[in-house]
Design brief:
It is a single chain. By secondary structure, the chain is mainly alpha-helical. It is about 70% helix and about 0% strand. It has helices at about 5-10, 15-20, 20-40, 60-85, 100, 105-130, 135-155, 170-190, 200-220, 220-225, 230-235, 240-265, 275-290, 295-319. Helix 4 (about 60-85) packs antiparallel against helix 8 and helix 6 packs antiparallel against helix 7. The protein starts with a helix and ends with a helix.
Length: about 325
């Protein structure tokens, strides 16, 4: 593998679809409510009605770009943090990391982290200005702080002595940023207000994102324990981690079903339930797989199923 290939590998492209799932969900709900508001007000003039499709708005694409930047930043920082701490070693089960392979040095990865952080912050500022302009000063300040917090969270997962990923707090941060911040934040960028029912799909995306992390930590249980990386799985053990995993998947599906019950408009709103099929197959697979190191293929399945769920859900919102 050459240097470019090492950087692409360090970016972990397979994690990117999961990272934008919340953006797709939050955007689709926010844009639909905006359209309904215009319909009810009777104002569907061209200057107000851009498109019924959220993916044709600048907010959507800048939100996608910002989120991808943050995810790649997190992946670089994770590679750096685990590499420096020695967590990535010959005992690791997953794909070999960039620092671990020696193809990228600590200095090079550090520079990559700084550049990616600056790009991500620049994209976040453009996103915020696109949504709020100069008319919502306090919202701009709040989302700017939120952007800085997201950058800090992406880096501090494994970097530094107080890395929260080494203290069993990774699940909480993933739930907050992949679920609540991603879905609710994007919804707010479209509507400039909050709707309590939107917490339900936000909870769904957050819990499924945590499920992916939990699978990762179950797979790495032995190597993490040996390296003193005290993930939640290391703290509670594999048996409890399996029960926790089943709870995450179950609660995720129930939250989305509750949103369906509250906002049901017709058969098309049922589209997203197709994604429940691979989730149920996955739960059965985890229950039957006794060796946690064999769970690596399930990470991609849950991540892609979450992305599929977001796509199907968004279709139900715009059709």
């Amino acid at each position: 593998m050459n240097k470019l290939g090492a950087w692409i590998s360090a970016a972990r492209l397979r994690t990117l679809p999961l990272s934008i799932s919340g953006i797709i969900v939050g955007s689709s709900i926010g844009n639909r409510l905006n359209i309904e508001k215009l319909i009810h007000s009777g104002d569907l003039s061209l200057e107000h009605f851009e498109s019924p499709y959220f993916f044709k708005t600048e907010i959507f694409w800048f939100a996608i770009a910002t989120t991808l930047g943050l995810q790649i930043l997190s992946n670089f920082a994770n590679d750096y943090g685990d590499g420096v701490k020695g967590t990535d070693n010959e005992d690791r089960v997953g794909p070999q990391r960039a620092l671990q392979s020696g193809l990228i040095s600590k200095r090079e990865m550090g520079i990559g982290i700084i550049i990616t952080a600056l790009i991500s912050f620049g994209l976040a500022m453009k996103l915020i200005y696109t949504s709020f302009g100069e008319a919502y000063f306090y919202y701009t300040v709040f989302f700017s702080v939120l952007g800085l917090a997201a950058i800090a969270a992406a880096i501090k997962y494994t970097v530094g002595k107080s890395a929260y990923g080494y203290r069993g707090l990774g699940d909480l941060f993933v739930f907050i940023f992949f679920g609540l911040v991603s879905v609710l934040g994007c919804f707010f960028l479209y509507t400039k207000h909050m709707n309590i029912s939107v917490f339900l799909p936000a909870i769904t995306i957050g819990l499924l994102s945590v499920a992916v992390l939990n699978l990762n930590n179950m797979r790495d249980y032995n190597s993490d324990k040996k390296a003193n990386k005290n993930t939640l799985v290391v703290k509670i053990g594999l048996a409890q981690a399996r029960k926790y995993h089943f709870m995450l998947i179950t609660m995720a599906m129930l939250s989305m079903l509750l949103f369906l019950i509250i906002h049901y408009r017709g058969p098309k709103d049922l589209f997203f339930m197709i994604a429940f099929v691979p989730l149920l197959i996955h739960v059965n697979k985890v229950a039957r797989t006794k060796d946690s190191e064999l769970l690596d293929p399930e990470l991609k399945k849950v991540a892609l199923t979450t992305f599929l769920l977001s796509i199907l859900f968004s279709l139900s919102q715009i059709l």
